[in-house]
Amino acid sequence: MYTTIKQQIINWEIKPGTKISEKEVAEKLEVSRTPVREAFLQLAQEELLEIIPQSGTIVSNIDLELVEEARFVRERIETAVAREVCGCISEESVFQLEMNLSMQELCLEKRTHQRLFELDESFHKILFDESNKSRTWSMIRQMNSHFDRLRVLRLAANPNWNVVVSQHKEIFQAIVNNDPDQAEQIMESHLKLVNFEKEELKKQYPDYFK
Amino acid sequence: MYTTIKQQIINWEIKPGTKISEKEVAEKLEVSRTPVREAFLQLAQEELLEIIPQSGTIVSNIDLELVEEARFVRERIETAVAREVCGCISEESVFQLEMNLSMQELCLEKRTHQRLFELDESFHKILFDESNKSRTWSMIRQMNSHFDRLRVLRLAANPNWNVVVSQHKEIFQAIVNNDPDQAEQIMESHLKLVNFEKEELKKQYPDYFK
DNA sequence: TATAACTACCATACTAGTATATTTATATAA
DNA sequence: TTATATAAATATACTAGTATGGTAGTTATA
What we know:
Two copies of one chain form a homodimer.
Chain A: H1 2-10, E1 19-20, H2 22-29, H3 33-45, E2 49-52, E3 56-59, H4 64-85, H5 91-110, H6 113-130, H7 134-143, H8 145-156, H9 161-176, H10 180-192, H11 198-204
Antiparallel strand pairs in A: 1-3, 2-3
Chain B binds a DNA duplex through helix 3.
Protein name (chains A, B): DNA-binding transcriptional regulator, GntR family
Keywords (chains A, B): DNA-binding, Transcription, Transcription regulation
Domain HTH gntR-type (chains A, B): 1-62
């Protein structure tokens, strides 16, 4: 239930400001109210839903301050992770990153953005796993859900995936070359990229923002 | 329910490895099973409980890798926060920090460790609030619950609160003096303090560790 | 006409019973 | 005595009904 509803919110099938109810969702997904309620609670913790006690539940508007907080956390953590894996990265992870990167190039050519989206995620996840920080990655994923919605908006607007993919390649190179300063620096600018377009999107869709 | 049960786990009223059940807790706290279940789910997400489907629920052993992950996140985030608030800190926050510090000194004299524990928390929280990162603080608090249990163990062992309090004072001074490098440096060593005693405690209470 | 009180409705919050799977104890056979 | 099959006990997972509180619409009154 949690995954299903979250996907629907992130993919804009349910838009910010929409009122939804346990009962309604339960009937649509053909389960009882409790599993839906449990999903609601988890999504509320993540601030994707706002539960107003005894009254109703609405899909949260995008909160740019929350987006910035999550971006900040990612920047501070991932620069350190990039630095940490330099030099001591396992062959297995190197192989996985290489595979990931070649698929990214393929998807870039074919313009299959949805798949590219997922490859982007798993590129970063490989680095977290390598440095034994899988829980930190889950935490970041949880904080990042408002930003994920923004990314889906941007998908249509044809973002500059070229830059993203080439940065991934540069980060990989810096890591295998055991150049922590370089790895950290590129990772930092990589994670500052998301700052672009935020304000522009807010102007374009003002109703969906807080 | 969530807060109650969490407190009991952190204060070692329910020990790691203990089997607990929704029904049992519900009866003891005189509510029905659902609110307890919801608390269980949240605590399981935080890894304080391990829910084994259709079988049972046990209080997790302390996982030193998780403790280290949380410590690492705190270090990377809080050094940046300390740097960020330098120079631009509001009078209100300065006042709150001063109040907090003088209370810390008082509690240090009187050896009221529990209260000191709370003052320590709120000292750091003030800095997060000042830099508009309240959600980041909640996130850290959530990741830190395994470490909180360790701290309670240490409370009895009479830890070196003198060092902790004087570091707080030094961090405060660096911030009001607008010395970001100094602030960051002390914050870093402050958050490395927790590394001490971890392995020792594990030897002392091997059954409670993973 | 505007405001206050009342009522019907609907949302979440909680309770309790049922379903399902796992564990444990027991009985039987090799 | 040991191994295996089976049944009872017990835990979570789910369903559905009830309680409680909040919202909006209507009516009555100033």
